[in-house]
Amino acid sequence: LYRTPIYMLNRIIQLQAVLEVITNQTATALEFLARQSSQMREAIYQNRMALDYLLAEDGGVCGKFNLSNCCLQIDDNEKVVLKIAKEIRKIAHVPIQTWETT
To answer: Which InterPro entries match (predicted)?
Structure first.
């Protein structure tokens, strides 16, 4: 079925709008997950400190369970993920276009 160029242009604009909405929602989800991950990291470190304090007589968690490799390291990637989400939004946004006839 033949479609006019105006019809096809309108369909492309609709798809572009849908893609921008989906991309913004994805970026929002990434931002929420990044913040939650950072909060969880903080809570894990607090719990570990409390456990080490409670088990201080036994050498902390590592001493109590005789663990040789007992370093707790959880990278905080919140800033990196938030930057990526910002870039995603920037890429997805297409400014309103106006057509001028001469």
So the answer is: TLV/ENV_coat_polyprotein
